[in-house]
Amino acid sequence: MMMEKKGVVVGEVVPCMLMALMEFCTIGLTILASTVFSKGLSPFVFVVYTNALSSIFLLPYNTFIVSRNKFGSFP
Predict the structure, then answer these.
(1) What is the DSSP letter of 71?
(2) Residue 33: left if φ>0, alpha if ψ -120 to 50, beta else—which one?
(3) φ/ψ bin of 40: left (φ > 0), alpha (ψ from -120 to 50), beta (otherwise)
(4) Closest Cα partner for 65 from 75, 53, 54?
(5) Is the pLDDT of residue 17 over 80?
(6) Residue 33's CB: how many other CB atoms inside 10 A?
(7) In 1-75, which residue ranges form alpha helices assigned H by DSSP?
(8) What is the sign, positive or negative, of the torsion defined by CA atoms of 4, 10, 13, 14?
(9) Contact criterion met (CB below 8 Å) for 29 and 50
């Protein structure tokens, strides 16, 4: 019975925490973009840098998922 309560609490808290984390990341990226644009960085260069950085962060996650699903089936 206690396990069900923990699952419900985690099921309600985790999406809210992830949403708050995404909002903080969006705000941080907006502040960063404003700062570097005022210092003279080209918007195109900023887009390339942010896409490269996100690829570096997401690539290990992708390889972990592929290595877990050796048969190619999606969860």
Answers:
(1) T
(2) alpha
(3) left
(4) 75
(5) yes
(6) 15
(7) 2-38, 43-68
(8) negative
(9) yes
Measured CA distances, 1 to 6, 22, 46, 57, 64 (Å): 9, 33, 51, 38, 33
* Structure confidence by residue, pLDDT tens digits, 23-74: 999 999 999 999 999 999 999 999 999 999 989 988 888 777 777 766 655 5
The token pair at 31 is 């502040």
Distance, in Å, from the CA atom of 12 to the CA atom of 9, rounded to the nearest integer, reads 5
Cα separation, 68 vs 52, in Å, equals 25
Q: CA-to-CA distance for 18 and 70, rounded, in angstroms?
A: 28
pTM above 0.70, yes or no: no
What whole-number distance in Å separates Cα of residue 62 and Cα of residue 74? 12
69: tokens are: 């699903």
